[in-house]
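ZP: hey, is the zinc ion complex queued? I don't see it on the tracker
AM: it wasn't, my bad. submitting now with these inputs:
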Amino acid sequence: MVNCERLPPSIPTGEFADRRRKLAARFRRLKIDAFLVTALPNIRYLCGFTGSNGALLVLPGDAVFFTDPRYTTQSAQECDCPAQTVEGSTLGGVAREIASRNIPRIGFERNRISFLAHDFLRGKLPATLNLIPVEGEVEKLRMVKSQAEIALIRASVQLNSEAYERALARFKPTMRECDLALEIDLQMRRLGAEGTAFETIVAAGERAALPHARPTHQKIGANRLLLVDMGASLDGYASDMTRTAAVGKPSQPDRDVYHAVLEAQRAAVAAVKPGIRVHEVDRAARSVLDRHGLGSFFVHSTGHGLGLEIHEPPRLGQKEKPVLEEGMAITIEPGVYRPGQVGVRIEDTVLVTARGCEVLTPTSKELRLL
Ligand code: ZN
Ligand code: ZN
Protein backbone atom coordinates (compact mmCIF):
# COMPACT_ATOMS: atom_id res chain seq x y z
CA MET A 1 0.00 0.00 0.00
CA VAL A 2 1.16 3.48 -0.79
CA ASN A 3 1.81 5.74 2.14
CA CYS A 4 -0.02 8.96 1.42
CA GLU A 5 -0.29 10.16 4.98
CA ARG A 6 2.93 12.14 5.03
CA LEU A 7 3.33 15.77 4.09
CA PRO A 8 3.67 16.38 0.35
CA PRO A 9 7.04 17.57 -0.94
CA SER A 10 7.28 21.30 -1.48
CA ILE A 11 8.78 23.68 -4.04
CA PRO A 12 12.22 24.87 -2.80
CA THR A 13 12.75 28.61 -2.31
CA GLY A 14 14.69 30.02 -5.19
CA GLU A 15 12.73 28.07 -7.79
CA PHE A 16 10.17 30.85 -8.19
CA ALA A 17 12.84 33.47 -8.92
CA ASP A 18 14.43 31.07 -11.44
CA ARG A 19 11.13 30.73 -13.25
CA ARG A 20 10.69 34.52 -13.40
CA ARG A 21 14.21 34.87 -14.77
CA LYS A 22 13.34 32.43 -17.56
CA LEU A 23 10.21 34.43 -18.33
CA ALA A 24 12.07 37.78 -18.32
CA ALA A 25 14.64 36.29 -20.70
CA ARG A 26 11.81 36.15 -23.27
CA PHE A 27 10.91 39.86 -22.98
CA ARG A 28 13.18 41.08 -25.78
CA ARG A 29 11.70 38.60 -28.27
CA LEU A 30 8.18 39.51 -27.13
CA LYS A 31 9.01 43.23 -27.44
CA ILE A 32 7.88 43.97 -23.88
CA ASP A 33 9.51 45.57 -20.82
CA ALA A 34 7.33 43.95 -18.17
CA PHE A 35 4.73 41.20 -18.02
CA LEU A 36 1.44 41.35 -16.13
CA VAL A 37 0.34 37.88 -15.03
CA THR A 38 -3.36 37.52 -14.17
CA ALA A 39 -3.98 33.75 -14.39
CA LEU A 40 -3.92 32.34 -10.85
CA PRO A 41 -2.07 29.09 -11.74
CA ASN A 42 0.59 31.15 -13.52
CA ILE A 43 0.86 33.48 -10.51
CA ARG A 44 1.24 30.47 -8.21
CA TYR A 45 3.91 29.09 -10.53
CA LEU A 46 5.88 32.34 -10.57
CA CYS A 47 5.69 33.52 -6.95
CA GLY A 48 4.01 30.87 -4.79
CA PHE A 49 0.72 32.66 -4.00
CA THR A 50 -2.17 30.19 -3.60
CA GLY A 51 -5.11 32.55 -2.93
CA SER A 52 -8.03 33.47 -5.17
CA ASN A 53 -7.24 37.07 -6.13
CA GLY A 54 -4.02 38.65 -7.26
CA ALA A 55 -1.90 39.99 -10.09
CA LEU A 56 1.84 39.70 -10.59
CA LEU A 57 3.97 42.24 -12.40
CA VAL A 58 7.20 40.62 -13.60
CA LEU A 59 10.08 42.94 -14.51
CA PRO A 60 13.67 42.05 -15.44
CA GLY A 61 15.27 41.21 -12.08
CA ASP A 62 12.21 42.31 -10.12
CA ALA A 63 8.57 41.40 -9.42
CA VAL A 64 5.67 42.90 -7.46
CA PHE A 65 2.60 41.00 -6.36
CA PHE A 66 -0.76 42.74 -5.80
CA THR A 67 -3.74 41.47 -3.85
CA ASP A 68 -6.63 42.62 -1.64
CA PRO A 69 -6.72 42.96 2.19
CA ARG A 70 -8.00 39.40 2.70
CA TYR A 71 -4.62 38.12 1.58
CA THR A 72 -2.17 40.55 3.27
CA THR A 73 -0.83 37.96 5.73
CA GLN A 74 -1.03 35.01 3.35
CA SER A 75 0.79 36.79 0.53
CA ALA A 76 3.57 37.86 2.91
CA GLN A 77 3.97 34.22 3.95
CA GLU A 78 3.76 32.66 0.50
CA CYS A 79 5.26 35.08 -2.02
CA ASP A 80 9.02 35.26 -2.47
CA CYS A 81 8.70 38.79 -3.91
CA PRO A 82 7.32 42.06 -2.45
CA ALA A 83 3.54 41.95 -2.03
CA GLN A 84 1.29 45.02 -2.05
CA THR A 85 -2.20 45.08 -0.57
CA VAL A 86 -4.52 47.26 -2.64
CA GLU A 87 -7.68 48.86 -1.25
CA GLY A 88 -10.37 48.74 -3.94
CA SER A 89 -9.57 47.27 -7.33
CA THR A 90 -6.37 45.19 -7.42
CA LEU A 91 -5.76 46.19 -11.04
CA GLY A 92 -6.01 49.85 -9.98
CA GLY A 93 -2.91 49.25 -7.82
CA VAL A 94 -1.18 47.54 -10.73
CA ALA A 95 -1.93 50.50 -13.02
CA ARG A 96 -0.52 52.98 -10.47
CA GLU A 97 2.69 50.92 -10.18
CA ILE A 98 3.12 50.71 -13.96
CA ALA A 99 2.49 54.43 -14.39
CA SER A 100 4.89 55.37 -11.56
CA ARG A 101 7.67 53.24 -13.09
CA ASN A 102 6.80 54.56 -16.55
CA ILE A 103 7.08 51.12 -18.17
CA PRO A 104 6.60 51.70 -21.94
CA ARG A 105 5.48 48.22 -23.06
CA ILE A 106 3.56 45.86 -20.78
CA GLY A 107 2.72 42.36 -21.93
CA PHE A 108 -0.55 40.92 -20.64
CA GLU A 109 -2.11 37.45 -20.85
CA ARG A 110 -4.63 37.93 -23.63
CA ASN A 111 -6.29 34.55 -23.06
CA ARG A 112 -6.32 34.90 -19.27
CA ILE A 113 -7.86 38.33 -18.68
CA SER A 114 -11.45 39.47 -19.00
CA PHE A 115 -12.53 42.07 -21.52
CA LEU A 116 -13.66 44.22 -18.59
CA ALA A 117 -10.31 43.98 -16.77
CA HIS A 118 -8.40 44.85 -19.93
CA ASP A 119 -10.61 47.89 -20.55
CA PHE A 120 -10.24 48.99 -16.95
CA LEU A 121 -6.46 48.77 -17.11
CA ARG A 122 -6.30 50.59 -20.43
CA GLY A 123 -8.45 53.36 -18.99
CA LYS A 124 -6.18 53.80 -15.95
CA LEU A 125 -2.88 53.85 -17.86
CA PRO A 126 -1.36 56.88 -19.61
CA ALA A 127 -1.99 56.68 -23.38
CA THR A 128 1.78 56.59 -24.03
CA LEU A 129 2.09 53.16 -22.37
CA ASN A 130 1.37 50.15 -24.56
CA LEU A 131 -0.46 47.02 -23.52
CA ILE A 132 0.85 44.14 -25.66
CA PRO A 133 -1.21 40.93 -25.94
CA VAL A 134 0.84 37.80 -25.22
CA GLU A 135 -0.37 34.21 -25.11
CA GLY A 136 0.88 31.00 -23.52
CA GLU A 137 4.33 32.19 -22.37
CA VAL A 138 4.10 31.01 -18.75
CA GLU A 139 2.25 27.89 -19.88
CA LYS A 140 5.21 27.09 -22.15
CA LEU A 141 7.58 27.27 -19.17
CA ARG A 142 5.20 25.13 -17.12
CA MET A 143 5.25 22.27 -19.64
CA VAL A 144 8.59 20.92 -18.40
CA LYS A 145 8.39 20.13 -14.70
CA SER A 146 11.13 20.59 -12.10
CA GLN A 147 12.20 17.76 -9.79
CA ALA A 148 10.08 19.25 -6.99
CA GLU A 149 7.03 19.44 -9.26
CA ILE A 150 7.56 15.85 -10.43
CA ALA A 151 7.70 14.74 -6.78
CA LEU A 152 4.39 16.52 -6.14
CA ILE A 153 2.69 15.02 -9.22
CA ARG A 154 4.00 11.59 -8.24
CA ALA A 155 2.57 12.00 -4.72
CA SER A 156 -0.75 13.23 -6.15
CA VAL A 157 -0.95 10.22 -8.51
CA GLN A 158 -0.20 7.77 -5.68
CA LEU A 159 -2.78 9.36 -3.44
CA ASN A 160 -5.35 9.20 -6.24
CA SER A 161 -4.75 5.49 -6.87
CA GLU A 162 -4.94 4.74 -3.15
CA ALA A 163 -8.27 6.60 -2.95
CA TYR A 164 -9.58 4.44 -5.84
CA GLU A 165 -8.61 1.24 -3.96
CA ARG A 166 -10.21 2.43 -0.74
CA ALA A 167 -13.42 3.47 -2.49
CA LEU A 168 -13.66 0.18 -4.41
CA ALA A 169 -13.21 -1.74 -1.14
CA ARG A 170 -16.57 -0.23 -0.14
CA PHE A 171 -18.20 -0.80 -3.52
CA LYS A 172 -21.60 -2.51 -3.87
CA PRO A 173 -23.61 -2.82 -7.13
CA THR A 174 -26.59 -1.30 -5.27
CA MET A 175 -24.67 1.96 -4.91
CA ARG A 176 -25.70 4.86 -7.10
CA GLU A 177 -23.09 6.48 -9.34
CA CYS A 178 -23.16 9.56 -7.12
CA ASP A 179 -22.59 7.45 -3.96
CA LEU A 180 -19.40 6.00 -5.40
CA ALA A 181 -18.26 9.44 -6.59
CA LEU A 182 -18.76 10.79 -3.08
CA GLU A 183 -16.86 7.87 -1.56
CA ILE A 184 -13.96 8.55 -3.94
CA ASP A 185 -13.89 12.26 -3.10
CA LEU A 186 -14.05 11.47 0.63
CA GLN A 187 -11.14 9.03 0.42
CA MET A 188 -9.03 11.59 -1.46
CA ARG A 189 -9.62 14.17 1.26
CA ARG A 190 -8.89 11.62 3.99
CA LEU A 191 -5.57 10.86 2.32
CA GLY A 192 -4.56 14.51 2.39
CA ALA A 193 -5.71 15.97 -0.94
CA GLU A 194 -7.07 19.52 -0.67
CA GLY A 195 -9.77 18.46 -3.11
CA THR A 196 -10.43 16.86 -6.45
CA ALA A 197 -8.63 18.20 -9.52
CA PHE A 198 -11.96 18.02 -11.42
CA GLU A 199 -15.45 16.67 -10.86
CA THR A 200 -15.18 12.89 -10.38
CA ILE A 201 -16.78 10.88 -13.19
CA VAL A 202 -18.57 7.63 -12.34
CA ALA A 203 -20.53 6.15 -15.25
CA ALA A 204 -21.98 2.64 -15.51
CA GLY A 205 -23.00 0.64 -18.58
CA GLU A 206 -24.26 2.71 -21.50
CA ARG A 207 -23.76 5.94 -19.52
CA ALA A 208 -20.02 5.42 -19.89
CA ALA A 209 -20.51 6.17 -23.59
CA LEU A 210 -20.74 9.84 -22.53
CA PRO A 211 -17.02 10.77 -22.31
CA HIS A 212 -17.65 13.36 -19.59
CA ALA A 213 -20.65 11.85 -17.82
CA ARG A 214 -21.90 13.39 -14.57
CA PRO A 215 -22.58 10.81 -11.82
CA THR A 216 -26.35 10.26 -11.60
CA HIS A 217 -28.74 8.92 -8.98
CA GLN A 218 -29.03 5.66 -10.96
CA LYS A 219 -27.88 2.44 -9.32
CA ILE A 220 -24.68 1.08 -10.82
CA GLY A 221 -26.12 -2.44 -11.20
CA ALA A 222 -24.48 -5.66 -12.38
CA ASN A 223 -23.06 -7.28 -15.51
CA ARG A 224 -21.76 -4.09 -17.04
CA LEU A 225 -18.67 -1.95 -17.23
CA LEU A 226 -18.03 0.84 -14.74
CA LEU A 227 -15.93 3.83 -15.80
CA VAL A 228 -14.30 6.01 -13.12
CA ASP A 229 -12.25 9.08 -14.06
CA MET A 230 -10.73 10.80 -11.04
CA GLY A 231 -7.93 13.14 -10.04
CA ALA A 232 -6.66 14.61 -6.80
CA SER A 233 -5.22 18.03 -6.15
CA LEU A 234 -2.27 17.82 -3.78
CA ASP A 235 -0.52 21.04 -2.85
CA GLY A 236 -1.88 22.43 -6.12
CA TYR A 237 -0.71 19.55 -8.31
CA ALA A 238 -3.18 17.41 -10.23
CA SER A 239 -3.32 13.70 -10.92
CA ASP A 240 -5.62 12.09 -13.47
CA MET A 241 -6.61 8.44 -13.87
CA THR A 242 -9.42 6.56 -15.60
CA ARG A 243 -10.14 2.92 -14.96
CA THR A 244 -12.96 0.88 -16.44
CA ALA A 245 -13.84 -2.11 -14.26
CA ALA A 246 -16.42 -4.87 -14.74
CA VAL A 247 -19.30 -5.36 -12.33
CA GLY A 248 -20.38 -9.02 -12.42
CA LYS A 249 -20.06 -10.55 -15.89
CA PRO A 250 -19.84 -8.07 -18.75
CA SER A 251 -20.77 -9.24 -22.27
CA GLN A 252 -18.12 -10.50 -24.69
CA PRO A 253 -18.48 -7.42 -26.97
CA ASP A 254 -17.85 -5.17 -23.94
CA ARG A 255 -14.73 -7.20 -23.07
CA ASP A 256 -13.55 -6.94 -26.67
CA VAL A 257 -13.86 -3.15 -26.58
CA TYR A 258 -11.96 -3.12 -23.28
CA HIS A 259 -9.06 -5.10 -24.67
CA ALA A 260 -8.88 -2.97 -27.82
CA VAL A 261 -8.68 0.21 -25.71
CA LEU A 262 -6.05 -1.37 -23.47
CA GLU A 263 -3.98 -2.29 -26.51
CA ALA A 264 -4.31 1.28 -27.83
CA GLN A 265 -3.36 2.75 -24.47
CA ARG A 266 -0.26 0.55 -24.21
CA ALA A 267 0.75 1.40 -27.78
CA ALA A 268 0.53 5.13 -27.03
CA VAL A 269 2.52 4.75 -23.79
CA ALA A 270 5.17 2.79 -25.71
CA ALA A 271 5.44 5.69 -28.19
CA VAL A 272 6.14 8.33 -25.51
CA LYS A 273 9.75 9.53 -25.55
CA PRO A 274 11.62 12.83 -25.86
CA GLY A 275 11.77 14.16 -29.42
CA ILE A 276 8.52 12.61 -30.66
CA ARG A 277 5.71 14.86 -31.89
CA VAL A 278 2.54 14.55 -29.83
CA HIS A 279 0.41 13.71 -32.88
CA GLU A 280 2.57 10.61 -33.36
CA VAL A 281 1.63 9.42 -29.86
CA ASP A 282 -2.01 10.07 -30.72
CA ARG A 283 -1.57 8.11 -33.96
CA ALA A 284 -0.15 5.12 -32.06
CA ALA A 285 -3.41 4.84 -30.08
CA ARG A 286 -5.70 5.67 -32.99
CA SER A 287 -4.20 3.16 -35.41
CA VAL A 288 -4.82 0.31 -32.94
CA LEU A 289 -8.46 1.33 -32.60
CA ASP A 290 -8.76 1.73 -36.39
CA ARG A 291 -7.50 -1.81 -36.79
CA HIS A 292 -10.24 -3.03 -34.46
CA GLY A 293 -12.83 -1.05 -36.43
CA LEU A 294 -13.35 1.27 -33.47
CA GLY A 295 -11.48 4.40 -34.62
CA SER A 296 -14.66 6.38 -35.30
CA PHE A 297 -15.74 5.91 -31.65
CA PHE A 298 -12.57 7.57 -30.30
CA VAL A 299 -13.83 11.13 -30.21
CA HIS A 300 -11.19 13.03 -28.23
CA SER A 301 -7.44 13.49 -28.15
CA THR A 302 -5.11 10.90 -26.62
CA GLY A 303 -4.06 13.02 -23.67
CA HIS A 304 -2.96 16.31 -22.18
CA GLY A 305 -0.32 17.87 -19.99
CA LEU A 306 -1.12 18.33 -16.30
CA GLY A 307 0.40 20.06 -13.31
CA LEU A 308 -0.99 23.08 -11.51
CA GLU A 309 -4.01 22.68 -13.80
CA ILE A 310 -5.73 19.49 -14.88
CA HIS A 311 -5.51 20.43 -18.56
CA GLU A 312 -2.27 22.07 -19.63
CA PRO A 313 -0.31 22.13 -22.87
CA PRO A 314 0.66 20.02 -24.68
CA ARG A 315 -2.60 18.55 -25.95
CA LEU A 316 -1.96 15.17 -27.56
CA GLY A 317 -4.32 15.65 -30.50
CA GLN A 318 -4.32 14.38 -34.07
CA LYS A 319 -3.01 17.62 -35.54
CA GLU A 320 -0.85 18.89 -32.67
CA LYS A 321 2.80 19.54 -33.46
CA PRO A 322 4.59 20.06 -30.10
CA VAL A 323 7.53 17.78 -29.38
CA LEU A 324 7.73 15.86 -26.11
CA GLU A 325 10.61 16.74 -23.80
CA GLU A 326 12.08 15.08 -20.75
CA GLY A 327 10.26 16.29 -17.63
CA MET A 328 6.83 16.72 -19.21
CA ALA A 329 3.91 15.17 -17.30
CA ILE A 330 1.09 14.03 -19.58
CA THR A 331 -1.89 11.70 -19.61
CA ILE A 332 -2.46 8.85 -22.05
CA GLU A 333 -6.18 8.17 -22.25
CA PRO A 334 -7.70 6.68 -25.39
CA GLY A 335 -11.36 5.71 -25.19
CA VAL A 336 -14.16 4.14 -27.20
CA TYR A 337 -17.72 5.43 -26.85
CA ARG A 338 -20.55 3.56 -28.56
CA PRO A 339 -23.62 5.69 -27.92
CA GLY A 340 -26.36 3.83 -26.03
CA GLN A 341 -24.14 0.76 -25.59
CA VAL A 342 -20.77 1.00 -23.92
CA GLY A 343 -17.88 3.29 -23.04
CA VAL A 344 -14.32 2.40 -22.12
CA ARG A 345 -11.45 4.72 -21.28
CA ILE A 346 -8.11 3.82 -19.69
CA GLU A 347 -5.93 6.68 -18.51
CA ASP A 348 -2.53 6.92 -16.84
CA THR A 349 -0.42 9.86 -15.79
CA VAL A 350 2.94 9.49 -17.50
CA LEU A 351 6.29 11.24 -17.06
CA VAL A 352 8.55 11.76 -20.09
CA THR A 353 12.05 10.57 -19.11
CA ALA A 354 15.47 10.81 -20.82
CA ARG A 355 14.98 7.53 -22.71
CA GLY A 356 11.21 7.06 -22.88
CA CYS A 357 8.65 7.40 -20.16
CA GLU A 358 7.60 6.27 -16.73
CA VAL A 359 3.96 5.41 -16.06
CA LEU A 360 3.38 7.05 -12.68
CA THR A 361 -0.06 5.50 -12.11
CA PRO A 362 0.42 2.31 -10.05
CA THR A 363 -3.13 0.91 -10.53
CA SER A 364 -3.35 -2.28 -12.64
CA LYS A 365 -4.90 -2.03 -16.12
CA GLU A 366 -6.06 -5.64 -16.32
CA LEU A 367 -9.85 -5.79 -16.49
CA ARG A 368 -10.86 -5.82 -12.86
CA LEU A 369 -13.93 -7.80 -11.82
CA LEU A 370 -15.94 -6.26 -8.99
ZN1 ZN B 1 -9.19 11.83 -16.54
ZN1 ZN C 1 -7.33 13.41 -18.54
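AM: back. The chain has a mean pLDDT of 96.
ZP: great, adding it to the tracker
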